[in-house]
Amino acid sequence: MGSSMRKKKEKAQTFKKTKLKVGKVKPKPENYTDTSFKAKSISMAHQSLSETAPDEIKKFKHYLSLAATSSSDKQRREALAFLTSQLAAEPPFNPIGTREILAKLLPLTPSPSSPVRSQLLKLLECLPGDEVRIHTEEALRWIRVGMTHLSPEVSLDSLAVLDWLLEVAADEAVSCPGGWVMTLNAFCAMMGWSRGTNGGWTAAPKIGVRTKDSASHARQLSTLARFLQAGLKAEDAFVASPNQYWDCLYRVDRTRDPYAYLNLFGKRRDEDGEMYQDRESRQRVFYRRYAVLVAAGSEQAKREGGAPGRAGTILNKILLEGTIDGEDVAAADTEDLLSLW
């Protein structure tokens, strides 16, 4: 008998119905497992029981670790919800400080999960503003990552985080290293504004992955208007005191890192990463690099009408209020003076 015939017979036996005979037990299948035994106890590995509840601090750190490192979006959202409830309690419970929370959770700003991003915004709104201000540079770095994300939903949700930051630390957002120029670069990249090859203004087409509907376009213009208002608004008049001269010579500044503008121990900065701590310096950079782009974009939005038109009108008004004289525009800034050497 050949091997092929033997294989055919074996295959036929598999599908052959067994004839049951009186007084004989039905044959058991090959994968049969005997479960007729009984045991007095069941031993399970890696199981422990404790009569005391986990410490609140350890529990807080555990959920913070889940929110930062978990691969499950649902688990991250639930962990963020727990942390939000702790920070929103009276009094707020934050055993590790705002710095650690921002360092671990700000990378979730460009998260692909919409529930995670919305819950992150709720958590950020529970943090005290005076403790967030000193970490504005780090927050803006992750906001810019989200603004230039390929997903329109991530980009718009990052604008919501920027709105929150402008509420709690508007002055720090426009004066920290890279806060002014790099954020304006992110706005231009997000809305597709750029200079053409002939020096004119061009806008990205409204097709592709960055489709601009009227609501999202209006949202972008509104947030840009708030950012420009924070950077171009008139500063409060300085009231001189009789001891001002001696205070400048001998009094120690109580602000955090008062000599940050000197960049004594940091990396060498270019124009994009520089600190622009006063209105005049921000105006000079804006009118030299972005005024034409923003003005053309606002005019185009006004021609579209609707929500973008209203947002463009507000943006144009802020540009007019922040206008400076021609002498100030032509004034030499720090980069111009350094280029003379």
Automatic annotation (TrEMBL):
Keywords noted in UniProt: Nucleus, Ribosome biogenesis, rRNA processing
Biological process annotations from GO: rRNA processing
SUPFAM superfamilies in alphabetical order: ARM repeat (SSF48371)
Location of the region described as Disordered in the Swiss-Prot/TrEMBL record: 1-34
Entry's localization field: Nucleus
Entries under Pfam families matching the protein: Ipi1_N (PF12333)
Bias type Basic residues, positions: 1-26
GO cellular component: nucleus; rixosome complex
InterPro entries: ARM-type_fold, Ipi1_N
Domain Pre-rRNA-processing protein Ipi1 N-terminal: 131-228
Family indicated by similarity: Belongs to the IPI1/TEX10 family.
Function (record text): Component of the RIX1 complex required for processing of ITS2 sequences from 35S pre-rRNA.
Subunit structure: Component of the RIX1 complex.
Protein name, as recorded: Pre-rRNA-processing protein
Native source organism of the sequence: Cephalotrichum gorgonifer
